[in-house]
Amino acid sequence: MLYVKQKRRIIMAVTVVTTKGQIVIPSKVRRKFNIKKGTKLYIEERENELILKPVTPEYFKRIEGILPTKGKLARALLEERSRDREKGA
């Protein structure tokens, strides 16, 4: 794994995709974004980039109000995530 630290404290890392399509997220990045075992990641494609965003309560608070559901969708997703944790997913 290759780490590059830039002037604005952006951590860049190079990782390898396994035969199963898995990647390793460096521990510094996992700690910074509070990514733990079982944390789901939202994957967004923008032009020639892939953007990974952890699906956490903070994420839902940031996107709350984008859709005209008055927070119902965010609450439903948080409840689903809580049930997944209870099941050990």
**Content of β-strand:** 15-25%
SSE sequence, one letter per element:
EEHEEHH
Main β-sheet, spatial strand arrangement:
1-2
The end-to-end distance, rounded to whole angstroms, is 27 Å
Determine Rg (CA atoms, Å). 15 Å
Task: Describe, in plain words, how this protein is organized in 3D.
The chain has 89 residues and is of the alpha+beta class. It folds into two domains: 1-32, no CATH class; 35-89, no CATH class. It is built from three helices and four strands. It has helices spanning 27-32, 57-63, 72-87; strands at residues 2-5, 11-14, 40-46, 49-55. The strands form two sheets. A two-stranded antiparallel ribbon has the order 1-2. A two-stranded antiparallel sheet has the order 3-4. A hairpin with a 5-residue loop joins strand 1 and strand 2. The longest helix has 16 residues, at 72-87. The relative contact order is 0.11. The mean pLDDT is 79.
List the helices and strands and how they pair.
Blueprint: E1 2-5, E2 11-14, H1 27-32, E3 40-46, E4 49-55, H2 57-63, H3 72-87
Antiparallel strand pairs: 1-2, 3-4
Helix pairs in contact: 2-3
